[in-house]
Amino acid sequence: MYNEYLGRQTQNNTQNVLRSDDIKYLWHPYTDIKNFERTTFPIIKHGKGIFLYDTEGKKYFDGISSWWCVNFGHSRHELIEAIKEQSASLQHSILGGISHPEAIQLSKKLAKITPEGLNHAFYASDGSSATEAALKIALQYWCNIGVTNRTKFICLEDGYHGDTLGAIGVGYVETFHKNFKPAVKESYRALSPNCADCPFKKEASTCNIECFTSMEELIIQHHSSVAAVIVEPLCQGAAGIRIYPEEYLRRLAKLCNQYEILLIADEIAVGFCRTGSMFACDRAGISPDIMLLGKGLTGGYLPMSAVMVTDTIYNSFRNNDGNDRTFYHGHTFSGNPITSHLAIAALTLYKDLNILEMIQPKIKQLKNGMEEIGKLLNNSYVSTLGMIASVHLNKESGGASRAKRIKEEALSNNLIVRPLGNTIYLWPPLISTENELNEMLSLLKDAVKKTI
Ligand SMILES: Cc1ncc(COP(=O)(O)O)c(C=O)c1O
Fold this sequence. Notes:
CATH superfamily of the largest domain: Type I PLP-dependent aspartate aminotransferase-like (Major domain)
Oligomer: single chain
CATH architecture of the largest domain: 3-Layer(aba) Sandwich
Distance between the termini: 42 Å
Bound molecules: pyridoxal-5'-phosphate
């Protein structure tokens, strides 16, 4: 397709034609159209390792793993081969009433690596659709066992579980979702564990998870009408990389257990080694009733997501005594053979490359580097978790508007980052080498210095 443009145009003219056709025909997600049209935005043509290359041959560090998913970087041959291999033998066959080996094998592997008890995989298409499926599974579970009044959800303020209406109902971010609020089913919202701006003015050394009281009160007050609590374990990503203590999750799991509320852990962003453990729930030593997986499940090569559930939940969906308990939910591409085969290859790669061990020294490197950047920004609050590192720019350092300028400077320095409000962060591919990490950190530091 690109060659088609090249064929008709001179090299220089090609960029202009692509840009004007983009502005004319393409609608970009999460993009301010007016601003976008004024910029000479990169048009990415190919990727290799942790780099993206635009049509002009300019090379960019992928500092956010292309929206938190390309854990193995770009053009990883094992993953490309998996796609090719499977598309040559069976590109699609449904899971409604029939099966195929790829989905069977993948489900078995996922049951093995996810926390204990999550033995069944239901496949969706992307993160948002996994959230929708999980919420419906939770609602129907209670109906299946004859409890009809458990129809509400508890979630965290500023949580994010996708952009579909059901997902917004449990994960409202004001800037993203305010226009849709009237159409959304409301949930009970517990205080966000926002350590960068602790409402109790606590620091790590004095914190006793005071913010958990809000969750506790909601559970105690409303448990009899609540189907499930849903959280992003350990890191509220889209809210601005709010990293919170493992103890919060442990208390939550205990309380959900005590009040017989289902716990849904949305590991779409943080699953698959990102936190320094296979799953964030592993770090806290908890096993939720439902776990959501996406993004890194396929190494970010094709969209696929999974909802893992316990035996108790799964078995409640068996038709019994003449009662229809079928889960009437599915997507055309649920458990597609290509994405399933690809996910199996990605799971093999996590193991073969020994990703968990490989990233340990880099976790420290990233933390140290980001702490230096925090110092340059008026000692702004730095939070890190595994291969996620963020600085929350305080007012004195310029807050959200400075963060925006840093992003622009970084881009002109060939580093792709995207601030979330006043938070700038790195979420690098897990295969980044020490040198590459150093370069990313120093490009970010340069961008910070240039925006003083
Ligand atoms: C925690 C979490 N859940 C769900 C989603 C939605 O995933 P998708 O963008 O694939 O719909 C995201 C996306 O960033 C996410 O971070």
